[in-house]
Amino acid sequence: MKTVHPLPDEASVVPVRQPLITVEKLTVDMPLGRSGSSVRIVDGVDFTIGVGERVALVGESGSGKSLTARALMRLDRLAKLSGRVDFDGTDLLKLSDRDMGKLRGSSIAMVFQDPMSFLDPLMTIGDQVAETLRIRGIGKAEARKRALAVLDELGVDRAAERLDAYPHEFSGGMRQRVVLAMALVGEPRLLIADEPTTALDVRVQDQVLDLLDDVSTRRGLAVLFITHDLGVVAGFAERVMVMYSGRIVEDGEVASVFAKPSHPYTQGLIKAVPRIDQDLNTLYAIPGAPPPPLARPSGCPFHPRCDQRFDRCGVDLPALQPVGMSRVACHLLDGKGA
Ligand code: SF4
């Protein structure tokens, strides 16, 4: 059973921060086999993450959240990217492959869902954590020393003794700490965490979240946390961006979005979170499924599933527009008669 975190206190809203990464009109097109044509998975996404800010990116599978995050690091070689990704004054989409390679791990790092598929079973933990530093030309002894320091920081028990151990000798939770150490050893300023706790049991999941919370606070690290679990968002993030069908449909402080979601899709996601006191027979699910990218409906892509749709919804695509401190893409904001 999933841990149900309490909703955050509305008073805990954080002030606006200095931007670290600013994404403008980002699109991601993926090729369709060898046909020469492509399909748009991410469709004009705009957002900013501040220095040290913890932002969650949520949505159902296929919403484009992982591809958005991977595009920031240009991890998918076949993906065609357009728009602008400004990191500390540099457009990452214009960097050479070589310069982008240098930036990965040192300025922006990423952790993934399944640590075992990310770790090399034939390499020691120490060598794997030190590898990012070795690639940057740091000597073996110094790289090993820093690897040990970060493993210690992340609470890996008897880290000095275990530098020469192999991944299969670690538990799932400890392997996720090692993967986190690999990401953090280069002292990045932005960590992208793609469902890093999904493959873990609830107890270990909470430990890893506490650890991420500690380490991001201590280091002033910004985190983009991708998840479909709103309980995790409530427990970890300051701001939440909701994605649907390749677009951001709501973006705001976690406390205010959870207390008063504006977009019908966000309302549905929150309604679908099980509560401890809830009768299992009354569990809610948003009807239908997200559209495949090749068959997006006209107008608002959520309209076939939306219980608040009206005539305009099937025709016009709603733009993401400011609403108080949030941004929302829904025609309801303009009134049904507009
Ligand atoms: Fe629903 Fe219309 Fe708003 Fe889309 S634009 S979420 S269909 S009300």
Automatic annotation (TrEMBL):
Keyword Oxidoreductase: no
Gene Ontology BP, a term: transmembrane transport
Membrane topology (UniProt): Peripheral membrane protein
Cell location: Cell inner membrane
PROSITE patterns to which the protein is assigned, alphabetical: ABC_TRANSPORTER_1, ABC_TRANSPORTER_2
Domain ABC transporter per the UniProt entry, residue ranges: 21-270
Cellular component GO terms held in the UniProt record: plasma membrane
Xref: SMART domains: AAA (SM00382)
GO molecular function: ATP binding; ATP hydrolysis activity
Alphabetically ordered keywords of this record: ATP-binding, Cell membrane, Membrane, Nucleotide-binding, Transport
Pfam families to which the protein is assigned, alphabetical: ABC_tran, oligo_HPY
NCBIfam families assigned: oligo_HPY (TIGR01727)
Similarity annotation: Belongs to the ABC transporter superfamily.
Protein name (record): Peptide/nickel transport system ATP-binding protein/oligopeptide transport system ATP-binding protein
Organism: Aminobacter aganoensis
Source lineage: Bacteria, Pseudomonadati, Pseudomonadota, Alphaproteobacteria, Hyphomicrobiales
